[in-house]
Design a protein that fits this description.
Elements: E1 14-19, E2 22-28, H1 33-44
Antiparallel strand pairs: 1-2
Length: 60
């Protein structure tokens, strides 16, 4: 039996981005890093760090 999926056919898969269990967007797999980093930075800006420290998000 041969199983063909989007990857084996040379097509890129779309990935959902979830925040708190809710899908907030869908992006191609090759472009998922930037939206994830942007969402992490947005979430970091809404969180109070324990002990009064800083929250730093590094993407790369």
């Amino acid at each position: 039996m041969v199983r063909l999926d989007a990857t084996s056919l040379g097509r890129e898969l779309d990935r959902n981005i979830f925040v708190k269990g809710e899908a907030i967007g869908t992006v191609p797999e090759s472009k998922i890093v930037e939206p994830l980093a942007e969402e992490a930075m947005a979430l970091a800006g809404t969180v109070e760090p324990a002990g009064g420290g800083r929250v730093t998000v590094v993407a790369g």
